[in-house]
Amino acid sequence: MAEYERVLCIKNELFVYRIPARTTNRGYRASEWTLDKPDWTGRIRVVAKGDALIIKLEDRNSGELFAKCPVDAYPGTAIEQVLDSSRYFVIRIQEDSGRSAFIGIGFSDRGDSFDLLVTMQDHFRGLQRQELQEKEEKQYATTPKLDLSLKEGQTMKLNIATKSLQSKPRPKHTQGSGVGLLPPPPRLQPPAEAPVSATQAAVTPETISTTNSSQANSVNPLLDFDNSFSGTNSAKPSTTDAGWGVDGNDPWGDFTSAT
């Protein structure tokens, strides 16, 4: 089955430098390069073919391959960041014949170099997760499985506790055993009409007039005083009696003439 290349990252501006050979074990420094005069300018394309990661340096217009750098691990010897800058790297390019050389590359934008680092880290972390998953699957396949099936002649006894399906009577609420609902108020019945007696039914206008007259005489006592003095058989009080007028006609004269 043919494997296809997957493009993981591409940047259209890349500078390539020839670097002096390293004479000590210390890292590379970009300040020792001719940064203002790059030896080649093009684009960089990071591709994945299966598990392999390849950095390709190509012409910006035609896409012709200038050099390629197979990356087997990161961090590793295939690509290394310089000590004095985060925008420059040293990569190891290889030819099909097996020859290799170290060159310097750089970006004008710091974000491009950051994307290159993140792309390589994500690729190799994915390979580690895939390798760990395959290892666990292989270990699971080789582990003997437990046979929990019943053999011929074996039986299984289960003790299942059953509960009665009869419904229990609901407890009744007693007074003072909690907050219950009050009963609804009794319905009010309209008052029954009292039966009309024969005496009330026989009331006539003449009876009402006589009753009103007797009530008036019993209510107004002054009328009785006037009637007592107007009769022929009734004697008027003496003018010398205390509490009466001099003329003997007005019983309230003293009260009206008092100062």
UniProtKB/TrEMBL annotation:
<feature type="compositionally biased region" description="Polar residues">
    <location>
        <begin position="197"/>
        <end position="220"/>
    </location>
</feature>
<dbReference type="GO" id="GO:0030125">
    <property type="term" value="C:clathrin vesicle coat"/>
</dbReference>
<protein>
    <recommendedName>
        <fullName>NECAP PHear domain-containing protein</fullName>
    </recommendedName>
</protein>
<dbReference type="InterPro" id="IPR011993">
    <property type="entry name" value="PH-like_dom_sf"/>
</dbReference>
<dbReference type="GO" id="GO:0006897">
    <property type="term" value="P:endocytosis"/>
</dbReference>
<dbReference type="GO" id="GO:0015031">
    <property type="term" value="P:protein transport"/>
</dbReference>
<comment type="similarity">
    <text>Belongs to the NECAP family.</text>
</comment>
<dbReference type="InterPro" id="IPR012466">
    <property type="entry name" value="NECAP_PHear"/>
</dbReference>
<feature type="compositionally biased region" description="Pro residues">
    <location>
        <begin position="182"/>
        <end position="193"/>
    </location>
</feature>
<dbReference type="Pfam" id="PF07933">
    <property type="entry name" value="DUF1681"/>
</dbReference>
<keyword id="KW-0813">Transport</keyword>
<feature type="compositionally biased region" description="Polar residues">
    <location>
        <begin position="227"/>
        <end position="241"/>
    </location>
</feature>
<feature type="region of interest" description="Disordered">
    <location>
        <begin position="161"/>
        <end position="259"/>
    </location>
</feature>
<feature type="domain" description="NECAP PHear">
    <location>
        <begin position="4"/>
        <end position="160"/>
    </location>
</feature>
<keyword id="KW-0653">Protein transport</keyword>
<keyword id="KW-0254">Endocytosis</keyword>
